[in-house]
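Example record for the data management plan.
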Amino acid sequence: QVQLVESGGGLVQAGGSLRLSCAASGLYFDIYPMAWFRQPPGKEREFVAGISGAGVHTYYADSVKGRFTIARDNAENTVYLQMNSLKPDDTAVYYCAAARSPSSAGVTTTLEYHAWGPGTQVTVSS
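Corresponding structural encoding:
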């Protein structure tokens, strides 16, 4: 059973920063790509950032490129999302996800991910 648990969400002022963490268990963590998605209130879940198994390749939604950085520490089975210059539009529940296939790095559709964390709330005040 794959388990993902996010942490690090909270309330931050616009322009501030947060670092989200996702602790993984029950999978070959260093083999599978990981990703962060988010779901703003009343909207569909959307891709935010992805990272390959070894952490060499990263992928970002246009809306966060230049502000967010995804990284992973395979020794600790953890993936991170560093979020800088936060905007009110970044307010959402943020989810980490594990891909179905080792070759799925950078895929943006939710269908390519088979395991999800319960999410962590990020609220950016104006």
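Summary line stored alongside the record: The two ends are 40 Å apart (CA to CA).
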